[in-house]
Design goal:
Structural class: alpha/beta
CATH topology of the largest domain: Rossmann fold
Number of domains: 2
Order of helices and strands: HEEEHEEEHHEHEEHEHEHHEEEEH
Number of helices: 10
Distance between the termini: 48 Å
Number of strands: 15
Strand content: 15-25%
CATH architecture of the largest domain: 3-Layer(aba) Sandwich
Largest sheet: 9 strands, mixed
Strand order of the largest sheet: 9-8-10-11-7-12-13-14-15
Length: 369
């Protein structure tokens, strides 16, 4: 019902979303992999040619005791995937990244790069989007930290999420992105779509590989184009190449609250890798100004890690506080202590709390103790 005081224009009210409606997804015949594709506790499937198949189930690698009986059976699966994705794979194209209709990522490597037949690695797209509350229940972080991170999102802080392969970077990025206010316009950029953002004012962009008839469209191209799309925030699924420079520029030119992920083994390593990727952009800039721009742009490095027990947790949160000579100074705000198995605050108050207070966000006394 719209009363006289309601200034909302009913002509631009978006139609309701039928979230119960499911798309008809036509998947290729996955053969003996079908039970693994349907098991939601399995996140990764690794076909090591005809010798064996490995899966990651509940965070742990295991051998389910099955394998392709012959190279012909394995090649049939390859053909089934190629038929539905329409991509080329063979001697002249011996490795390939494709996406299945359900959103799962597939990497295939074949002759002449492999010896015993095609190797197929499948990263399944989770059917459920986890929230920070879910991650607290899974002991991936603690409740007080979840509150702090939620204020960092609404307070439009720029965050870099680092971690190794399979550490949960994208899951964590999804959880943070779900906290972005609904009235903000978001542009997401990915090589393979993994982010699931429910905002109505959201544009999802995807890179395009080179084909015989057209040039590739890279992440860097899409970041540059996103700046013309009036975004409030830009989210890059992963910085891998020279697009890191453009992402940094976007964060520094009125798109506060943007986020991305990066492969790294620690917060310090994440900054070093970010420097390297920026230099790949071919920008003629000395290293010190590059580091100064990183310090002035990135508010937090959130490092996530997969531990030996299969659990994925926030291992550390660090803040770039400034420069000492030509080195970036970092201070740890939060960490996970593997000896005690507990999350610990360092007791240091982040510098960014001043920006959050200007945005109307305050913390209780001794919150960071």
């Amino acid at each position: 019902m719209i009363n006289d005081d309601d200034k909302t224009d009913p002509g631009i009210t978006p139609p309701p979303i039928d979230r119960q409606r499911k798309k008809e997804i036509k998947m290729p015949d996955m053969g003996i992999l079908k039970p693994f594709m349907e098991d939601e506790s399995i996140t990764d499937i690794m076909v090591n040619d005809t010798r064996n198949i490995m899966v990651e189930k509940n965070g742990k690698l295991m051998y389910p005791g099955v394998a392709f009986l012959s190279i012909e059976d394995l090649n049939k699966l390859v053909r089934n995937i190629l038929d539905i994705t329409g991509r080329l794979f063979g001697y002249d194209h011996p490795y390939l990244d494709v996406m299945l209709p359900d959103g799962s990522r597939v990497n295939m490597v074949g002759t002449p790069l492999t010896i015993d037949g095609p190797c197929i690695t499948i990263r399944k797209l989770p059917h459920r989007r986890f929230t920070l509350d879910d991650l607290v229940r899974f002991n991936s972080l603690e409740k007080k930290l979840a509150y702090f991170l939620s204020t960092a999102v609404t307070g439009r802080l720029n965050m870099l999420i680092s971690g190794g392969t399979g550490s949960g970077k994208t899951t964590f990025l999804n959880a943070l992105a779900s906290l972005i206010p609904a009235d903000e316009r978001i542009v997401t950029i990915e090589d393979t779509p993994e982010l699931v953002i429910q905002h109505l004012n959201n544009v999802r962009l995807q890179t395009k590989p080179q084909t015989p008839s057209s040039a590739a469209v890279t992440t860097r191209d899409l970041v540059a184009n996103a700046l013309r799309m009036r975004p409030d925030r830009i989210i890059v699924g992963e910085c891998r190449r020279s697009e890191a420079f453009d992402m940094l520029q976007a964060m520094n030119t009125g798109h506060d609250g943007s986020m991305t992920t990066i492969h790294a083994n620690s917060p310090r390593d994440a900054l070093s890798r970010l420097e390297t990727l920026i230099m790949l952009a071919g920008i003629d800039m000395p290293l010190k100004p590059v580091r100064q721009q990183i310090v002035s742009t990135i508010d937090f490095i959130i490092h996530v890690k997969r531990y030996r027990d299969g659990a994925r947790r926030v291992a550390a949160i660090s803040e770039a506080t400034g420069m000492e000579g030509e080195m970036i100074t970092l201070q740890d705000i939060f960490s996970f202590d593997t000896v005690s198995g507990q999350f610990k605050w360092s007791g240091l108050v982040p510098k960014c709390t001043e920006d959050l207070e200007e945005a109307g966000i305050s913390f209780p006394k001794n919150f960071f103790s």
